Amino acid sequence: MSKKKKFRPHQQRQAYLFILPSMIILSVFVFIPLGASLVISLLNMNIFMKDISFAGIHNFVKLFSDHRVANATFNSFYFTLFEVPLQVGLALLLTMYVAKNNKYTKLLRSTYYLPFVCSMTAMGIVWSMMLDPNMGLVPYWLSKIGIDSISFLKDPNLAMPTVIAVTAWKGFGYTLTLLTAAVLNISSSLYEAADMDGAGQWKKFIHITIPGIFPTISFCIVTTTISSLQVFDQTYVMTQGGPLNRTETVVQYIYDRGFQTAPYDLGYASAISVYLFVIIAIVTFVLKRFVLNKGEEAND
Amino acid sequence: MRMKKWWSLLIAAVLVGSSLAGCGSKQEEAPADANAPAQSESPAQEPAGTDAPEAGGETGEAVTLNFWNVFTGSDGDILREIVDKYNETNTDNITINMDIMPNDTLQQKLPASIATNTAPDFVLFGVENIAPYVSNDSLEDISDFWDTAGVDKSNFLENVVDLSYVDGKLYGTPMQYNVQYLYWNKDLFQAAGLDPDTPPATMEELADFAVKLTDSSKKQYGLALPTSVTYMQFLWANGGDADDTETNTNLLNSEENLKTLEWLQDLAVNKKVTPENITGPDADTMLQAGQVAMYMSGPWQINGLNEAGIKFGIAPCVAGSAGSFSPAGGCSFVIPKGTDETKKAAAYKFMKYWLTDEVLKEWSQRNGFPVWSKTLMEDPEIQNDEVLSSISKATEIGRSYNLGYSLASQIDNDVMIPLFEKVITGASKPKDALDEASKAMDAVLGSN
């Protein structure tokens, strides 16, 4: 007993040493910027960092009367509400077919995974070229079968759905991989028993597969939601927030205020970042309460 | 047990060490940036060998200048040739390290680098950027340039030189001057039954021609109207304007502007003469592909059109009831605040080199940019240059728009571009779009 007590502090010290590298990296890229943006959001400060003064909550007051913040918040939620179900749902459906280990399904799974390993920027450029109404491949094919002049990323009503579709296409392979791994972990005796009882594919999927992988599903929902609320690269590359700000998400607007439009108001941009941080914290909390916990219950 | 512990300690130490080393080298890099090029330049200075870095610091002879600019197009290659030639031929032992980046990137990096004293020694960017930088005290006042460098200011057109002055002080030396032209595709004119040598001169003609030149079955459009830019030429043509920079007054809500915007919406939405919702680069590509018959843009189109083999003409922007005007712009060399005297003197030498007729002539001839050096205008080769003589008339109608005004880019991004976008896409009626823009303009002007 006493030996154990003596040993522990040492062990802990070693543990701290091991996490030190990642703590340094996390501090430099996460904790310090987080603290800094909290402080900057209370200042009048632009990118030139001259004449910095205390602004109090002025930036936050301004934020709530700025219709572009409201518009950007709407767009971020619009994106999230459709992208997450699409990505997770698509992955879930395909899991039914590829959650076996043979050559064919392995090939399919790696094919689905391929877009995920490519950079969003590169994929965004490729898709915006393929969908371009004047020189793109997809509108050309559509015109061959009699569907004319769909300008996916240029049409104010179609731009966001298009961005959502491209994002889901790029991301579902990752979700699929996680779900498939979970499905393969389900004991085969359950399926055998169901077969004996004469259950069909669909029934087995609903009553065995889904409950079996529910913790993984809820994990996917939470992580995808968080990353969806931070959506930036795809809109930046494919639409620049346009047309008519219909794809301007919160992060895109933060970037615009801080780095694209003079006077490069870092104080205001930071205030919007803090606002987004709070939104994501609330959403995560709610999801954790209602989705993650349920997942754990289901697992018990 | 002991062995294991030692091993784990060792691994931890290595991990920590390497991560610290990673941070350390990054930190070192930043402040040394100004001097670092001496090392990174070594391939170019191969003959000088190992003593090159020392020469920079101790003898004070060799000067390496870091130079950032935004010339990402084909003109960037010509700029690089000129700079390379200067590096080889100058007798002052000056080496210029050129770094080309998109304007977006430059605008993100430059203010931060000036604030942390890691800025390049001189920069080349659009004159519209000068005022915001000056109002944040981020550029060197170079009013002594003409005397110190011994360059005759009176040899250059006043309106061009003026673009680099803010409140009577010089912050940049002019590098090029440009206005918007009307480009037209002669082959498409002919095919549509129009005279290929007569461009439209008025707004009515422009609309009329644009309709005739539009053939949606062939995906051919009469006039490209990108939604990511402003159309001051149209507002001015009918006697309207956006704002008065002297008095901070909002001039948007006028009958003239409404009339112009209604005309523009009719053209874009009802007559469908423009491809829907395109960006400037989209329009460039379509003009080069022969999908667009007319397009208003700057001199930088000329090289691309020649390379694409398009038969084109260059005309002044069309006239309305108040005449014809074209927004003027240009680029200037500027020196970020905090550049030391030696480097500043070396940058002056390069600026002086640029302002020689020899370099200006090469730049104008190879890029199709207007000539603004009076002695160069007398040059017979320039006078006989087909492109340059065709643009000289189009250049005369240049008018400055919010230049030297620190709110210029905010007005463009928050007021004017959204206004034109709503009108051209038909998202709002001209009256509503104008009211909304006018409110946005008040907000921007009020923040001054």
From TrEMBL, chain A:
Gene3D superfamilies: MetI-like. PROSITE patterns: ABC_TM1. CDD domains: TM_PBP2. One of its GO terms (biological process) is transmembrane transport. It is a multi-pass membrane protein. GO terms for cellular component: plasma membrane. InterPro entries: ABC_transporter_permease (IPR051393), MetI-like (IPR000515), MetI-like_sf (IPR035906). Residues 73-287 form the ABC transmembrane type-1 domain. Keywords: Cell membrane, Membrane, Transmembrane, Transmembrane helix, Transport. It is found in: Cell membrane. The chain crosses the membrane at residues 15-43, 77-99, 111-130, 158-184, 205-229, 266-287. The keyword Ligase does not apply. Belongs to the binding-protein-dependent transport system permease family. This is Sugar ABC transporter permease. It comes from Diplocloster agilis.
